[in-house]
Structures are given as structure tokens and as C-alpha cells.
Amino acid sequence: MLAEHGLEAILIGNAAAALQGAPVTTVDLDFLIRKTPRNLQKLTAVAKTLGAMVLRPHYPVSGLFRLMRDDDGLQLDFMTVIHGVRSFESLRSRSQTWDFAGHALLVEAFVVARSTQRSAGGPVKPKLVPRKQQLDALRAESDRALIEAIRRLLDKPMEERTHFLRKRIGLRASAI
Fold this sequence. Notes:
By secondary structure, the protein is an alpha+beta fold. The protein has six helices and nine strands, in the order H-E-H-E-H-E-E-E-H-E-E-H-H-E-E. The longest helix is centred in the C-terminal third of the chain and has 25 residues. About 9% of the residues have low confidence.
């Protein structure tokens, strides 16, 4: 889909690490893209082709665009900023090109060293966070997820909206 719409992206995160053999798992795919008006148009076209919605699940300045498809739970995250990475070009120069179903896919190359170091008990120490702070962060993330789910439901056409006990029948009726 990325090649079809001309969106240049670099696969990053756990999916990139797993592709290179690191012992990690993930439920989504993370990509880095350039934040340009044209790339955002391409991203919208990719979402439309996939039957997904483009969401901004975190504070808008975070630079995260999430493609979500409720039917099967597809989740693709497109980031425009990554902590510690100066530019798309700097990461691109350190990436490897992989053949993925006959298409070239840029994959972050140095992920394995970081992930393997973490899984092997290397020098990366876990940060201790107070329990109250963890619970507050979890509550805030749950609230954001609920708001996004409501927003996605409201974006659907009226005949596709459902309530947990009622289903809409036509324009004026509903049934349990």
C-alpha cells in the first residue's frame, strides 16, 4: 500500500526488531515518515484504500498518526518525530532495504542491538515509577482510548452506529 501511494516510510520499533530476529512481539506496525502536507495526503489515501481511519490519539504535537480499522483491529502508527532521531534522512541512511512481498521496505537497522541488549539484561535499567503515577497514566490512556472509540463511532454513518444493547434498524427505529 505504501508503494502504491508513494509514501516513503521506515519500519521502526518492535516490528522492525522482530523482522531482524530480536525476541520481541508487537500487535502493531510503527513507521517513521516525513511530516509534509503531501505525505499527509498520501497517508489519508493509504487509510482510504485500507478502509481505515486516521486518528490523532495523543496530544497533536506528538507527531503520531494512527491508522485504525475496527473490523479486524488493524493498527498502523505513523510517527513524524522520534526521540533521539534528528531527521528522517539520518535514520534512512542507517536503515536496510528489505524485500517485502516484492516491494522494497526500509527497516530501521540498529533496533536489534537495542532490543537484544534489553532482552539480554544489558545496561538498560528499568525506571522505577510510583504506583499512583502508573495508575494515573493508565487511567488517562484508558480515557483517551474511550474518547477515540466514541469519535470513531460518531464518524460512522447513522445506519452503522450501534449501542451495546441496541441496534439501529433503518433511520428511525432500533431494537435490542
